[in-house]
Amino acid sequence: MIGRAGMDIYPEPPGTKIDDVQNFSTHLGGSAANTSVALSKLNIASDLVTCVSDDAIGNYIFKKLDDFNIGNKFCRRIDKKFQTQIAMVETILENNQSILYRNNSCDLQLDRSDIDKINFQEYSSVFLSGVALSSNPSRDAVFSAVEKASALKIPLIIDLDYRPYNWESDEKKSEVYKKIMNQMDIIIGNDLEFNIADNSSDGLNLAQTLIQKKPSIIIYKMGEQGSKVYTKEGEQDFGIYSVQAIKPTGAGDAFNGGFLSSMYQGFSLEDSVKRGSANAAIVVTKVGCSSAMPNLEELNQFIKNKEEM
After folding, report:
1. Looking at residues 8-24, what average pLDDT do you find?
2. What residues have CB less than 8 Å from 147, skipping those under 6 apart?
3. Which of 74, 86, 160, 265 could form a disulfide with 101 if both were Cys (CB 3.0 to 4.6 A apart)?
4. What are the DSSP calls for 181-249, one per residue?
């Protein structure tokens, strides 16, 4: 799992605007870390590859990774002049404020030496978070990991996870995304991310083009409209599970965990997408992202209840 880990701070109680906050709760955050938590809760082990600051927030990250049984042997502490991401996130649906502090981000200091420490033969797949591509040395480190995993025919998975910070230009962003997407086995992203990768307003066309190349599965998420799933055999449309959400954040990372864990556990592609969607539906009903990830019993019970309705 290559990507970022950070600290998420939520105004309490739920429904409180940042403007009016008196108290906060803290949670492990960052898309790669959240996806690792989702997998761990669903009985799939992973190691996180990232950099964190050598300070109290870095200590917090390591403790939380331990709490969630996520491997941290490839998490490197670096000088605290580089900062661990902090996100301030409201538990509110309308006009939700999710503010990321990513100045001088330490996760983007991941380099090739970090990748060289990994014995890729020990892993069944490599998951990449797209934000790690936004600048160097992290970008080169990611491509080094792709090269090593590809040589061993280890499946490569990317969550496009676009964030506008740190990219030097729209042209470079599109160039880098297209390059790496052509090397992936599974691509997961929303319509905005596919549009950005194509530097156009027709990301759907990009997905339809890419599936004719290396990727074997492309999941094109469209929010409340569900998703389209492309394979070499064709495409399928999927809906979402209706729930009383209290926030919009965390759904993507939860989907990743639900989908990938189900694929590993032998579910069909169709059932895996549905279980990913169910996992996402559960998380938006709770405070936090990592802290809101359901365990296997909760996920199965949620699906059973929905099927009986």
Report:
1. 94
2. none
3. 86
4. HTT-SEEEEEHHHHHHHHTSS-HHHHHHHHTTSS-SEEEEE-GGG-EEEEETTEEEEE-------S-ST
Q: Is the pLDDT of residue 164 over 90?
A: no
76: nearest Cα among 91, 87, 65, 67: 65
| Region 114-125 average pLDDT | 97
Domain contains 4:
no
In a domain, 85, yes or no: no
**What residues contact 154, with CB distance under 8 A and at least 6 apart?**
120, 123, 124, 125, 126
Question: What's the average model confidence in pLDDT over 133-145?
Answer: 97
Instruction: Report cis status (omega within 30 of 0) of the bond before 11.
Output: no
Q: For the full predicted model, state whether its pTM sits above 0.90.
A: yes
How many distinct structural domains can be found in the chain? 1
**CATH number reported for the structural domain that contains residue 153 in this entry:** 3.40.1190.20
